[in-house]
Write a structure and sequence with these properties.
Length: 293
């Protein structure tokens, strides 16, 4: 059966996005380009192709995969994300929605930033159990004054284009959620500022104004992130094939696999190879070009 797909090639503004090569590869695979739209600004360039194809999604992805390079990404988007129906965008927080790793900013107050950063990096590559590594990293925060949370909150920077991406989805009537292996005390004010539909993170233990070095309740791990995706989609009446998940670390793998489109954002190699599309530059809002808003 012939279906309509979207093929999006994107790259840094100064780089060739290989539009001719993409069209040629699609033609050789038997796809017909029926429309092309472009977006160019001083940050990046996008060529958005609507194609008609009577084969499978994975065939199109294999056809254009050799054209992905250091400078050019390519997203092949299924028909389920191309209508005007309500969608769910769910994102990781640390190093995805925001530029920093909050646990490292907190650890800097204890003089342990380098140590914690090394463990975080290993956990995000999937070399360590996330829950165990989180408990070990949080333990170094024991004894810090609760005020360090507010200090860290003032230092958080959104990823380039993050606010624009959230606004674009919300203004079009879609659901926007974040789920984090970080901490509720940091995430809740940020979620309120961005007017996010849903948010979830771990709760840092605090006693008499001092961090206890513990996490309260079950850890938000990769399984919990996928569970949140399914639960929030079900609550909104959104099928999983109309969901988009964005993340960078091994803790996001289940969520990316469950979504209709899994996006790796400046991700670790294992995540990049497992995702449906990899974004390897700093502009998070390019994701808005992948679907119909």
């Amino acid at each position: 059966m012939t279906e309509t797909f979207r093929v999006v090639s994107f790259g840094a503004r100064s780089e060739d996005t290989r539009r001719k090569e993409v069209r040629r590869a699609l033609g050789e695979a038997g796809a017909v380009v029926v429309r092309e739209e472009t977006h160019d600004d001083d940050r990046y360039s996008v060529a958005n192709l609507t194609v008609s194809f009577d084969g499978a999604l994975e065939e199109l992805r294999r056809a254009v995969a050799p054209l992905v390079s250091e400078h050019t990404g390519i997203a092949v988007v299924p028909p389920s994300l191309l209508g005007k129906e309500t969608k769910l965008l769910i994102m990781d927080v640390d190093s995805t929605l925001i530029k920093q790793e909050v646990i490292e900013l907190l650890a800097a107050h204890a003089g342990r930033e380098a140590e914690v950063a090394a463990v975080t990096e290993s956990a995000m590559r999937g070399e360590l159990d996330f829950a165990q590594s989180l408990h070990a990293r949080v333990a170094v925060l024991a004894g810090l004054e609760e005020e360090v949370i507010s200090d860290v909150g003032t230092r958080i920077e959104l990823s380039d284009g993050a606010e624009h991406l959230v606004e674009a989805f919300l203004e079009s009537g879609h659901v926007v959620a974040v789920v984090s292996g970080g901490f509720s005390q940091i995430l809740e004010p940020l979620a309120a500022r961005l007017q996010l539909t849903h948010s979830k993170a771990n709760l840092l233990g605090v006693d008499a104004g001092t961090l206890t070095g513990t996490v309260i309740g079950p850890v938000v791990d990769r399984a919990e992130k996928a569970r949140c995706l399914r639960a929030w989609a079900e609550a909104a009446g959104i099928p999983l094939d109309r969901t988009i998940a964005v993340g960078d670390g091994a803790n996001d793998l289940d969520m990316l696999a469950a979504a209709g489109l899994g996006v790796a954002f400046n991700a670790k190699p294992a995540v990049r190879s497992a995702a449906d599309v990899a974004v390897d530059f700093q502009y998070l809002d390019v994701v808005r070009h992948f679907v119909t808003l």
